[in-house]
Amino acid sequence: MSLFVVRHQHPAEACPAGDPQMGPMLLLHLAPQNAETYGVNVQSHGVIDGQHTLYLIVNADDEEKVEKFMAPFAMAGSVEVQKASHCEDVVARAAC
């Protein structure tokens, strides 16, 4: 599986967290059991306070699976998926 860092951002006025139906639905979407149905393993996620910006670290076979998983978030704002590496892998490559 490959490692990806995902960034989702939306304007304050479109924040799904404040919607009594959308907020809980997105939390369920991020749940490990649901992510697995997309072929995605969510390692961690967090929201930057006051910036309406969500970051996720995920594993998946390919970027397409991550993008499909993030589709509900794309309805509220931008989604950026970037291929990443573990720090140990970067150091090992640099040492060669």
Short overview:
This protein has helices at residues 22-30, 32-37, 63-69, 71-74, 87-95; strands at residues 2-9, 40-48, 53-60, 78-84. With 96 residues, the chain is of the alpha+beta class.
Folded structure, characterized:
The structure is a single chain. With 96 residues, the protein is α+β, with helices and mostly antiparallel strands. It has a single domain, classed as Dimeric alpha+beta barrel (Alpha-Beta Plaits), CATH 3.30.70.1060. 36% of the residues lie in helices and 33% in strands. It has 5 helices and 4 strands, in the order E-H-H-E-E-H-H-E-H. The protein has helices at residues 22-30, 32-37, 63-69, 71-74, 87-95, and strands at residues 2-9, 40-48, 53-60, 78-84. It has a 4-stranded antiparallel β-sheet. A hairpin with a 4-residue loop joins strand 2 and strand 3. The protein is globular, with a radius of gyration of 14 Å. The two termini are 23 Å apart.
Q: Can you give keywords for this protein?
A:
36% helix, alpha+beta, 96 residues
Write the layout of secondary structure elements.
Layout: E1 2-9, H1 22-30, H2 32-37, E2 40-48, E3 53-60, H3 63-69, H4 71-74, E4 78-84, H5 87-95
Antiparallel strand pairs: 1-3, 1-4, 2-3
